Amino acid sequence: KRGFTMYVWLALVITLAIVIGAKVFVGKWPVLRQRFGIQSPTEYLKTRFGQPAQLTIAISGVIMKLLDIAAKWAAIGILLHGFTGIPVWAGVVVSGLVSMIYITIGGLWADLVTDFVQFIVQLGAGIVIAVGVGTALSERGLSYLTMWGELNTIQPGFSNPFNGDYTMLWCVLYLFAKTFEYNGGNWNLAARFISTANASEARKAAVLSATMYLLWPLLIFAPMWAARLLFPNLADPASELYPLLTQTYVPTGMVGLVLAAMFAATMGMTVSDINTLSAVTQRDIAPAFSARFRSMIEQPRTSLRIARVITVCFTVITIVIGLNANSFGGVLSLVISWFGAMVGVTGVPLLLGLFRTFRHTDGRVTIGSVVCGFLAFALTKLLPDFPSDWEVATPLIVCAAVFILGGLVNRALGRDVRTDADALLTTLAEPDRVDVLTP
Predict the structure, then answer these.
(1) 153, 181, 207, 305: most buried, per Cβ within 10 A?
(2) Where are the alpha helices (H) located in 281-393, listed in sequence order?
């Protein structure tokens, strides 16, 4: 619908967000595992801010991630409908059930393998589609570089970096939100960084991810931009265009592989999310309410069984939400207006809590910052004329302001920093000089 701006606000913004994180944030995540033995992203918050703040962030984050995962089910339902003609609701249910079985049995390792294999298949298919569309353009005397003039005649502004609601201000504010999300505010990404060997390896992973975000979307988006010229009369381009490109330019036997890869890509994201939700619930939320549960998770077999039950329950909930995605404004609204706006509210204390600079921000201030962030989010939804540029970033800005100002007030009042929290922050201050504990 909007053209080149999609690459700017999605690919370029996220690339910059991850580059910033590679320098500032991600090196601290493996240190938490090496030095303090944490496994879930919110586990360290108990030492840093106390259990009430940890629970507030963990429970809030679980609710948000359920919306994000549901949006992914809805998205794959739309794709399956475009490829096969099955109803969208059936695609959501089938995707959810297959993924539930897969992640329950295979865990995070199965997710990593799926991610790698689906990328290889998608890379091959993406190249085939790009070459096929490029050939079709050349038959019209055009190329990917020269097609923009004709595209702009069909829809003025199609080649603009900022188009419609996606203004320069919107992109700058979105960068602010994505910097927190893609460097640990989104828990499944924090889990990936936690699982790297050390701070240096975490940074390398971030740089590789940023590079792929810069290059890979061009291979996917360029044929779809060009397809506005090749297939100008589609009734519903959002659901018809990519399946039509695949069926037109990819050899018949490979179409099934592309569909499988798209399915696996969605499954790779969702199972990673659900795996992390299960870890947070099992290690950080449930033990706070039950001494019996705390003792149960110390037993490996029992712990695994509990994790699988939690995984199944969460998957069912997200399928139900995915079936009702239109109630939230559709897939894009779920991803941007709901999850994208709220993830920073829990991401601010999760990431800024890693830095000694903010050591005077305590648990009470942290809970207050999260509450204020969610109130700001509610305000953006309740006010009918709230500026679209500020919708995503406002909750995060409010949360960050309360978090930082509250810490400054504590410092001015001379309130002490907890000894265990201060020791944690001192260790994190130099992530490359950590003595690695033997597992």
Answers:
(1) 181
(2) 286-289, 291-296, 300-323, 331-332, 341-352, 363-382, 388-391
